[in-house]
């Protein structure tokens, strides 16, 4: 019985939700040339139509290499373009195309449907609580990794 309880960790269940969400969303978005990873970047751009890759990486807490790869795929599929930044010559702005803007309602609907699936039998209060707790867990995870990286740099 002790072994069962020791495996009842938040990480285990978060991993399960992530894995199955990735499978569902990857399959759903595949016909549009999108992976679940690229959709995150589109969602950030839907909020603010033009951003640098660095801004998007910071919002999503994703490294710059992964961000560059995702933006390149989105560009190759016709969802974004890049243009020179007006004031920072080292940066480019990533901009949504008409193709991406046309798909925004559908993408939002698919993601909302998945959220509704995950929280199907939750009360409105439980939905607010779980999102708050997950945000706190993410903040704790980020802080831990940053702390570990800081220790390694010394």
From TrEMBL:
Pfam families, per the entry: MarR (PF01047)
Does the keyword field hold Transcription regulation?
yes
Kindly state which keywords UniProt assigns to this record, in alphabetical order. Answer: DNA-binding, Transcription, Transcription regulation
Limits of the HTH marR-type domain:
1-139
Cross-referenced SMART domains: HTH_MARR
Q: Which PROSITE patterns match?
A: HTH_MARR_1, HTH_MARR_2
* InterPro entries tied to this protein: HTH_MarR-typ, Tscrpt_reg_MarR-type_CS, WH-like_DNA-bd_sf, WH_DNA-bd_sf
The answer to whether the entry has keyword Transcription regulation is: yes
Q: Which SUPFAM superfamilies does the protein's record reference? A: Winged helix' DNA-binding domain
User: Which residues fall in a coiled-coil region?
Assistant: none
* Name of the protein: MarR family transcriptional regulator
